[in-house]
Structure formats: structure tokens, C-alpha cells
Amino acid sequence: MEVIISKTYEEMSRAAAEMVAEVLNTKPDAVLGMATGSTPLGLYKELVRMHQAGSLDFSQVTTFNLDEYVGLPVTHPQSYHYFMHENFFRHVNIPAQNIHIPSGTTSNYRAFCAWYEQRIEEVGGIDLQILGIGSDGHIAFNEPTSSLNSRTRLKTLAKQTIEDNSRFFDNADDVPIYAITMGVGTILESACLLLVANGENKAEAMAAMVEGPVTSMITASALQLHPEATCFIDDAAASKLKMRDYYEWIQENKPDAPRFD
Ligand code: F6R
Q: What is the spatial distance between Cα 84 and Cα 75, in angstroms, rounded to a whole number?
């Protein structure tokens, strides 16, 4: 796992956006996995800036979002559909039919989840999956004790997540209790993983994820099993990493490292 530490949130977001741009420049019809939440906002802003400056084209891109709250219609301001359209999709040129977001209002969740998995397979899998991390170490809505082989399914949110996400709602009681989420197994099948994390409240989860044991108690720790996982984090989120000096040493020496390609 590669850990890239930036001084600020803005620097972190730019570095992560460069990695996305690199994938799209190499493969213009790439399949991107998208995350919501406050962390990737800076990354999306930077991708929109690149697109508007004419240096990034999304016309052949296909996307799959990680998750959606159950019970929120697409028009609800806190639904992930709404979030993605407001913060990203309406500013770039991804064809509408290429955008996939789990439905929070389907009448048959089991069938919907199976279809979602099938669609990912049909388009050849996800090339680059963007991820955030919850303060309880979750990726997507794979809460502690989720199977590391899990697939897209309905999930009951942990109380910690409901409390963390209540900041976006008028009332904590308005936060949905259930979500549809890609599984850890689904995420691990992506060719490349990119995780962003900032702030002090992510420091413990980051340390557990990068340096702790692989455990379903911290589902993000499953990234240790992936050969192409990169974490872009800021100073505060890196504050509990024991091997921080080493991660910085690797980045310092990267330009001179022998190249095999
Ligand atoms: C959202 C998602 C979640 C968030 C995580 C962190 O699509 O998959 O795992 O990434 O809850 O959320 P923020 O960025 O708001 O701290």
C-alpha cells in the first residue's frame, strides 16, 4: 500500500485528482468507482477544474457509486444521487446512461444488488475505485464485522456512522438506518484503489487500516490485500501512523527509483 502524506487538504485533493487524471489519460473509457461524503469534495472540485480547463474529458467514462441510503428518493438533498449530481456529474461530461448509483428506493433490494454487481462485470470491472474511510474504519458502508468477501447488499449502519453523518441532516433521527453498499469483496476486485482521508478524527482509523492487522473490525484494512492501493492523506490523518518517516522516505526517493516499464 502506498501512503502519500500532504500538508493540507487542498494539496491532498490535488494529488489524488492527478492520479485519477493519469488513469483517464491512459484509458479514456475507464470505469471509475465513486465515493460520497465530505472527504472527496476537494478531489471532485479539482477534477471539475481540470475538465473546465479542457485537460480532462469524461465523455467515455462509466461510473459506479459505492453506496446509497435506503429510503431517500433521488431528489432528497442528502441522497447520494443528489450529492453526486450537485458536486460532480452536472459539472462534467459523463453520458447519463453511463452513471450508476445504487437505488435507495427499489422495491426489490436483492434483485437490485445482483443487477448492480452484474453491470460492473458487464463493463469489464472497475479500473479505479475512489474511497473514503469512516471513523470506525469502514469503506463504503461496510461496517465493522462485514465479511471481507461481501458483495453489494443491504446493510444496517453502525450507530457511530449515523452519529458521524447526522451533521448533514437537520435531526439525527432523520439519518437513514439502512444503506445499499458495494461489498468489500466487490471493492477489492477493482484494478486500482484510491483512498482519501483528512482530519484528526480519521487518524486512528488510518493507523488501524494501514498498520494494524487485516480484520473485519476495520474493513478498510482489507486494502492491505490489494496490490494497487494508494492512500492520499493529510497531516492530521497521518498523525497516528508509526511508520510515517518511512512513507515520507519512499516518496522522497521515488523519482530516482528504478523503473520497470
Ligand atoms: C460514502 C462512503 C463512506 C465515506 C465515509 C467517510 O460513499 O463510502 O464510506 O467515505 O463514511 O465519510 P466522510 O468523507 O464524510 O468523512
A: 11
Active site residues: 67, 136, 138, 143
Residues facing 83 on adjacent strands: none
Give the C-alpha separation, 7 to 232, whole Å: 11
Span 72-118, pLDDT tens digits: 999 999 999 999 999 999 999 999 999 999 999 999 999 999 999 99
For ligand 1, say whether the CB of 137 is within 6 Å of any of its atoms. Answer: no
CA distance 171 to 180: 21
Spacing, Cα 68 to ligand 1 middle (Å): 11
Q: Is 53 exposed, middle or buried (0-12, 13-18, 19+ CB in 10 A)?
A: exposed
Note the pTM of the prediction, 2 decimals: 0.97
Residue corresponding to grid cell 482530519 = 199
Angle (CA) 124-127-131 rounded to 5° is 130
- The answer to whether the CB of 37 is under 6 A from ligand 1 is yes
